[in-house]
Design brief:
The protein is α/β, with parallel strands linked by helices. The protein has helices spanning 15-30, 45-56, 62-69, 71-86, 118-125, 152-163, 196-204, 212-221, 274-284, 313-326, 354-364, 388-398; strands at residues 2-7, 34-39, 91-94, 101-103, 112-115, 129-133, 136-138, 144-146, 167-172, 193-195, 225-229, 237-240, 253-257, 260-269, 289-296, 301-309, 331-335, 338-344, 371-375, 378-384. The protein has a domain at 2-173: Carbamate kinase, CATH 3.40.1160.10. The radius of gyration is 23 Å and the shape is globular. The structure holds adenosine-5'-diphosphate, aspartic acid (ASP) and magnesium ion (MG). Residues 8-9, 40-41, 46, 72, 134-135, 149-153 line the site of aspartic acid (ASP). Magnesium ion binds at residues 8, 150, 153.
């Protein structure tokens, strides 16, 4: 079998951890498999590099930032190759540009365009373990790019798709995908299986155990994907196509996202065209708007509220204030002390009333819901940040997701 094994930051945090990765990789090879390894930077390295750049400038040059950020993964692959070679395992480390993993030119959030598989197959044929830098690529002009935070997951899945691997294993610091972030809920249940679609919604709503784009790629190319721990041999969670083997549960998981902020614009004269006036400049600036609530009052004015990533708040406020002034809106408000909670499950397609159940649970706790949005398999709500952990725990329990039932 050809297996892609990806190890995240905590799994390659120090030499001891890298040696343990080397043992696992060597064992997989001994079992007769061809192995391609994808590595993240050691935990904390990417943050440290970002901090350095931030010390130099508020808005560091994106191209140079990518050259800097790519270093962490380069260090990991070289160290793993040294460890494997020291124990007699044939291997070769390759940086993304040596493969090449071609991307578009969007520095900091580049998308993979194509992967050259010839070199990898050649090395595998020669009996080598191939160790590849995650998180990065190269443009057709030869510039280094990065794929956005958590991007090594996407590198691994894209490589597995390009190589038509039998399996892509994502090794991390938890046993797999849980019904909630173990850092937020004390006893979440480990999911044996989850559908691509639910996993995509969970990841997109804040479950950063997988980068959203990696799940999109896995779903599109039907890559068999497993999330498991690098600290033990437990089987982990399989991410699979939706089929009859999936338990028919109403809710698969609950997420908490504290990385968004809310902007509200009060009493904007007029109705038609208001949304596009506000959102056009944001789109132009590359700012992603998430939840949107609009209300047209009887007096003909519109109230508009939406959320954006906290990192985009300053820019969003400046742009929104300019639009609000042009349109004679009464005022613009911003709040960073909010959190978004999402409840995800395929069962919602066929069960009515989940939103109502959620509102009831929160009402019983006297928690105010500030914004709501629903999709076929997800309900998202914005609440005050300080009330969010309690809300997540209550929802997790009410939908019977607690391990200790
Ligand atoms: P890696 O460095 O291995 O890529 P990440 O920190 O990116 O690891 O992702 C693993 C983390 O994701 C876990 O430590 C956990 O706190 C967090 N996480 C959030 N939601 C979930 C979830 N539903 N299931 C499992 N882990 C989750
Ligand atoms: N090192 C990168 C990050 O910290 C990519 C990854 O870990 O997946 O975001
Ligand atoms: Mg990660």
């Amino acid at each position: 079998m050809l297996i892609v094994q990806k190890f995240g930051g905590t799994s390659v945090k120090n030499l001891e951890r890298i040696r343990s990765v080397a043992r696992r990789v060597a064992k997989t090879k001994e079992e007769g498999h061809r192995v391609v390894v994808v590595l993240s930077a050691p935990a904390g390295d990417t943050d440290a590099l970002l901090k350095l750049a931030a010390e130099i400038s508020d808005q560091p040059d994106p191209r140079e930032c990518d050259s800097l950020l790519a270093l962490g993964e380069q260090k990991s692959v070289a160290l793993l190759a040294l460890c494997l070679k020291a124990s007699g395992v044939a291997c070769i480390s390759l940086n993304a540009h040596q493969i090449p993993i071609l991307t578009d030119k969007e520095h900091g959030r580049a998308r993979i365009v194509s992967i050259g598989v010839e070199r990898i197959f050649k090395e595998l044929e020669a009996g080598q373990v191939v160790i590849v830098t995650g998180f990065q690529g190269i443009t057709e002009d030869g510039d280094v790019t990065t794929l956005g935070r958590g991007g090594s997951d996407t590198s691994a899945v894209a490589l597995a798709a390009a190589l038509k691997a039998s399996l892509c294993e994502i090794y991390t610091d938890v046993d797999g995908v849980y019904t909630a972030d173990p850092r937020v809920v004390a006893e979440p249940k480990l999911l044996k299986k989850i559908s691509y679609e639910e996993m995509m919604e969970l990841a997109d709503s804040g479950a950063k155990v997988l980068q959203t784009r990696s799940v999109e790629v896995a779903a599109r190319h039907r890559v068999p994907l497993t999330v498991r721990s690098s600290f033990n041999d437990n089987p982990g969670t399989e991410v699979v196509p939706e089929d009859a083997s999936l338990e028919k549960i109403l809710v698969a998981g609950v997420t908490l996202n504290t990385q968004e902020a809310k902007v509200a614009i009060r009493r904007i004269p007029g109705g038609a065209g208001v949304l596009t006036r506000f959102f056009a400049p944001l789109a132009e600036a590359g700012i992603n708007v998430d939840m949107i609530v609009e209300n047209l009052s009887e007096d003909g004015t519109t109230d508009l509220a939406f959320t954006v990533a906290k990192v985009d708040l300053r820019k969003t406020l400046a742009l929104s204030e300019a639009t609000a002034k042009r349109l004679n809106a009464v005022r613009v408000e911003a709040a960073s002390d909010i959190a978004k909670i999402s409840i995800v499950g395929l069962g919602m397609r066929t069960h009515a009333g989940v939103a109502h159940q959620i509102f009831q649970i929160l009402a019983d706790l006297n928690i105010t819901v500030q914004m709501v949005s629903t999709s076929e398999i997800k309900v998202s709500l914005v609440v005050a940040a300080e009330e969010a952990p309690e809300a997540v725990k209550a929802l997790h329990k009410a939908f019977r997701l607690d391990h200790a039932k």
